[in-house]
Design goal:
six-stranded parallel β-sheet, ER, Rossmann fold, binds NADP nicotinamide-adenine-dinucleotide phosphate, 10 helices, NAD(P)-bd_dom_sf, NADP
């Protein structure tokens, strides 16, 4: 029997229930994995509390890693005993699960299961921002709204390594040091001098904003981007970004957005995950810690994400 974490109703973290379920043998194109680590993502909290609708009952989670236990008919390139991970396949909060073989990324020897569960979805989202939604160039000045968050902290460090000048914005004052460690300049979103300080770095405005916050920093991000610049809207942790469409058009600002599953697909996942693993090896994210939780302590993990208490990447240890 597998342990699973399922919700039967939307609500507070207490709706997360640890249950058991039988896992069948894999069918055509499927693989059975014994999971070792499960990534917790902001989106999971939205599915739990009902900000995003999903069919109930539902096993949450879309990211995990583990060892292949069995492969179904037609699966040729994945073998029993291999370590694998995935980043966009619902039903991850489980000790064992079935998954489509095409969703899996084989893990190199030097990337642990825990690292994969902590970094894969968030790191590939950062890759989407830097390589698919925008193609970052050395010398560009970028503002990262939500640089203290999981994806933002990865993207800031990666953008710096790719030669950009990075201005990071934190929503919590206690996380300014984390932002400072991965950016050239760090500000708090409510700093009344933030725009003046940004203009001191980029007098005409920044070339690109990578936005993970949405509503809470909308005024600052719109004012910070230069005319003819770009807003890459990846997330909206504080609620949807409302842009003034007329003003955006008048100033020639391009607004782009997208989902990681659309941009990191069968055509790009090899390249994207290869670049992410190399960046991890190169130590770009060496100061980013994992916040570890026991599998059954999932409610606490969700409460910590929702309360913005975390400074590490949340992982459930199975
Ligand atoms: N498009 C995609 O495919 C994709 C993929 C992954 C994630 N996302 C989205 O990206 C967003 C960030 O994800 P994440 O995993 O990085 O989440 P996270 O770790 O919880 O980070 C959220 C960030 O937003 C900041 N923030 C929240 N409310 C704020 C407010 N009112 N004012 C200023 N800053 C505020 C937080 O600041 P503090 O922590 O400093 O308080 C933190 O920097 C989420 O909306 C998520 O759904 C989208």
């Amino acid at each position: 029997m597998a342990k699973i974490i399922r919700i039967h109703e939307h609500g507070e973290p207490s709706v997360l229930r640890v249950e058991t379920a039988e896992v069948a043998e894999p069918g055509p194109g499927e693989v059975k994995i014994r999971q070792e680590a499960v990534g917790v993502n902001f989106f999971d909290t939205m599915l739990r509390d009902g900000r995003v609708n999903g069919p109930l009952p539902m096993v949450l989670g879309s990211e995990g890693s583990g060892v292949v236990e069995a492969v179904g008919p037609g699966v040729a390139d994945i073998h029993v005993g291999e370590r694998v991970a995935y980043f966009a396949s619902m039903g991850a909060y489980a000790s064992e699960r079935l998954i489509d073989a095409s969703s899996l990324v084989a893990l190199p020897q030097d990337i642990s299961n825990e690292q994969a569960a902590a970094f894969l979805a968030k790191g590939l989202t950062a890759w989407m921002g830097l390589r698919a939604l925008h193609d970052i160039a050395p010398g560009e000045v970028v503002l990262v709204a939500g640089a203290s968050g999981n994806v933002g902290s990865i993207l800031s460090r990666w953008a710096m390594a790719l030669g950009a000048t990075v201005i990071g914005v934190a929503g919590s004052r206690g996380k300014l040091d984390k932002v400072r460690a991965g950016a050239h300049h760090a500000f708090h979103s409510q700093d009344p001098e933030a725009l003046t300080k940004i203009r001191a770095v980029a007098p005409e405005g920044v070339d690109v904003v990578f936005d993970f916050v949405g509503h809470g920093t909308a005024e600052l991000t719109a004012a910070a981007v230069r005319s003819g610049g770009k807003i890459v809207a990846i997330g909206a942790a504080s609620g949807q970004l409302q842009t003034d469409a007329l003003e955006v058009t008048r100033r020639g600002i391009e607004v782009v957005s997208g989902g990681v599953q659309d941009h990191v697909n069968t055509a790009t996942v090899g390249e994207a995950s290869g670049q992410l693993f190399q960046a991890m090896r190169d130590g770009l994210f060496h100061d980013l810690r994992v916040s570890r939780y026991a599998f059954t302590d999932v409610s606490r993990a969700h409460a910590d994400v929702a309360a913005r208490r975390l400074t590490g990447l949340p992982v459930l240890r199975v």
